[in-house]
Design goal:
By secondary structure, the protein is an alpha+beta fold. About 15% of the residues lie in helices and about 50% in strands. It has a six-stranded antiparallel beta sheet, with helices on one face. The mean pLDDT is about 95.
Length: about 120
């Protein structure tokens, strides 16, 4: 997928991904690739929020695809909207190189103790 993490904290995670190699047969960014980017950065934030000895497991994601991307990179910004003891939710906005919104997603992760702890 070629995802790069540019910034990471429990409150906000930023990552980017190339469009090339992540397209559907028509040459457009695959909607599933946008979801992979969203879940990857949202889960990273949730894991950081959970802290040592805990894990984050995605339990729900939804996405709206607003426009296509055909080249360059897409950048995702995941912002925590809820951070509790057992759940963490992130709003994720994916934009193209011109700052146009490509996708809006929401991810909820369940937070659990890591196996063996």
């Amino acid at each position: 997928m070629g995802i790069e993490c540019l910034e990471a904290s429990p409150e906000r995670v930023v990552g980017r991904m190339p469009v090339k190699g992540n397209t559907q047969p028509y040459g457009l960014l695959h909607g599933g690739a946008s979801c992979v980017l969203a879940e990857s950065i949202g889960s990273t934030g949730a894991a950081l929020h959970a802290g040592p000895g805990r894990i984050a497991v995605g339990i729900e994601i939804n996405a709206t695809h607003h426009r296509s991307a055909t080249d360059g990179y897409v950048t995702g910004v995941a912002t925590r909207t809820h951070g509790g003891r057992t759940l963490a939710t992130y709003d994720i906005v994916v934009t193209d190189d011109e700052g146009r919104r490509v996708c809006t997603a929401r991810l909820t992760c369940m937070l659990r103790d890591a196996p063996g702890t």
